[in-house]
Amino acid sequence: MTLKTFGADQIGFLLLSLQWTILLTVIALIGGGLLGFAVALARTSQLKPVRIAAASYIQIIQGIPVLMILFLSYYGLSLAGFELPPLFAAGASMTIYASGYLAEIWRGCIQAVPKQQWEASESLAMTRLQQYRYVILPQAMRISLPPTVGFAVQVVKNTSITSIIGFVELARAGQLINNATFQPFRVFLAVAALYFVVCYPLSQLSRLLERRLHAGSSR
Amino acid sequence: MPEVVVENVHKSFGALEVLKGVSLTVGRGEVFALIGRSGSGKSTLLRCMNGLEKINSGRIEIAGHALGEDAKALRKLRTDVGIVFQSYNLFPHLTVGENIMLAPRIVKDVEKTKAREVAREVLQLVGLSEKFDSYPDQLSGGQQQRVAIARSLAMRPKVMLFDEVTSALDPELTEEVLMVMEQLARDGMTMILVTHEMGFARRVATQTIFMHKGKIWEQGPSAALFANPQTAELRQFVKSDVK
Predict the structure, then answer these.
(1) 10 Å Cβ neighbour count for A122?
(2) Contact A139/B50, CB-based, under 8 Å?
(3) What is the set of domains in chain B, with CATH numbers?
(4) Statement: residue B243 has pLDDT above 80
């Protein structure tokens, strides 16, 4: 058997797999965003048990490696009798991982809104829900844009960990090509370049947003 | 008929007792000035009146509402009691007009065109009609504070509370805010203000209360109180005020 060489076909395969990386990132950010938002709200609740539950969730997720979340959802659930396709396990664990971090980022943003904004809106007879919706969250959202986009970069890169359970995203595709061509330097340089092409614009966007925010206009 | 009744109110922050049995009655259309050193409890007393601080004991009744634990009743009270803060606290993400229309729209379900009408009217009252579409950060401190007053007025309150509203402003801007407040007083609004502006208290307030160590130390018609302080503490306080 002759070794294949790293060529157009392989690059096409990498590009195809890049789509899975992006899809996984999108799933993680949407799923993790929804879950993380709920946890962030719970984290700033007036009810102490709710606050503690949310804080524990965040601590647990941040305190264990993503890999363990991945193994637990892939092997753990299959032991329990659920046969999950890799995309499902990968999407679920990336969602859980992202939720833990987004919750903490957004908690910080909600708490960064000055407490006088709470007092002013409360004094205008708004309910707590109205305070969140019309006064606090619009301001918190603005503060949260740079760190959220910054975190998205981490998610893009960390999706590579799902290669371990055989999900063929960009990193896994690189491994497969390397197995067939044994040109690791070329292959992984190409893989790294593709990650960079996705992450670099996001990093720049995050920095741009941050500069805008610090420039001080309060809209 | 009294618009505000405060009866034997006690309030502590942890071990520190800041209000030690305060009682006062404010009639409709009266203007009360609360003066005293920082730490005397005057701001805390004001904040207790709309439930921003919970009292430990005593009774407060304001604009026909008894202050209590129930959240719904407290919101009802707050629709009738406006408060303006030292730091303006406008909503920075909303325009002046939106700042003013927000609470009437969502709290009192006022229809949009009506809310806009009210907003224009209260803005005119504070002399800022042309700022309807500006954002707070495009205004001076004095203008922001006048918008904050307008925002409260748009709820059609029966009582207005002012918590050191000119303390963050330089003299020129202070004047424009005080003029708005004086106009309000003349129009018959029941007002309680914590202030360091002794001249303003003397001129505009019907009664002045001097607070000291968490108690009402001295109280009386403003002119008499300033002209003829009865206690050594008030004499000292009035003397130390250069204005």
Answers:
(1) 21
(2) no
(3) 2-90+158-240 (3.40.50.300)
(4) no
